[in-house]
Amino acid sequence: MTTGLFISFEGIDGAGKSSHIEGLAQAFRDQGRVVTLTREPGGTPLAEKLRALMLHDAMDPLTEALIAFAARRDHLVQVIEPALARGEVVISDRFTDATFAYQGGGRGFDWETLQILEKIVLTWQNGSQAHAYGLLQPDLILWFDVPAATAAVRLSGVRAPDKFEAQSAEFFEQVNGGYARRAAENPYRFVRIDAAQPVENVRQQVITAIRSRGWL
Ligand code: TYD
């Protein structure tokens, strides 16, 4: 049976990941793989309800982090792990690194507390080994890195901004700082995509990252 593959896309609002997510999904489908496309916060009926609260209601950063992780747990149990167990490719628009970037970097919430929550929420029993527990992390994180000013231009006028999209350039530079810290802590899982480049160049960077791992 084919092994499941878990890839997440990350980056600040306006980094331009959406069209590349669809493109990568199609590239896998062209090779006969079954792809589960999903997103965070969200991906299940319950997690989508939590998403609506998170994106539109004011709350303190710990509450925000707890909601993100609660939604993530449901997503993991209901969608991600079962799809991986079936040998599918799971592509998620954001995952845990977004909590470190937005709540940790952007809001300045305590990094170590987020690491504790991560350990609790992502712990998963591995297959038939009754006592082997590990964290269910993506095999690869594609981080679309773009300066906050560039992202702001791309976002402007697209639609009514949600709670996060309405944040300042300074907030998004801090979010970028959070992603950079996570990338430095997880160098083998993270690939930095220079998302300020023209779209075709970005597409090539994404495909190269996947091909160099022998997945396409
Ligand atoms: P986003 O993924 O950008 O969706 P859309 O393209 O539909 O706007 O929106 C999700 C927002 O939630 C984004 O601003 C980042 C934020 N977020 C967090 O603050 N913490 C998290 O843990 C996650 C997953 C997202």
Would you kindly provide a written description of the structure presented here, covering whatever features stand out?
It is a single chain. The protein is α/β, with parallel strands linked by helices and 216 residues long. 51% of the residues lie in helices and 16% in strands. It is built from eight helices and seven strands. It has a five-stranded parallel β-sheet, sandwiched between helices. A hairpin with a 7-residue loop joins strand 4 and strand 5. The radius of gyration is 17 Å and the shape is globular. The mean pLDDT is 95. The site of thymidine-5'-diphosphate has 12 residues, from helix 4.
Topology:
Elements: E1 5-11, H1 18-30, E2 35-39, H2 45-56, H3 61-85, E3 89-93, H4 96-106, H5 111-122, E4 123-125, E5 133-135, E6 140-145, H6 148-155, H7 169-185, E7 190-194, H8 199-211
Parallel strand pairs: 1-3, 1-6, 2-3, 6-7
Antiparallel strand pairs: 4-5
The protein binds thymidine-5'-diphosphate (TYD).
Thymidine-5'-diphosphate is lined by residues 13, 40-41, 55, 68, 93-94, 98-99, 102-103, 164.
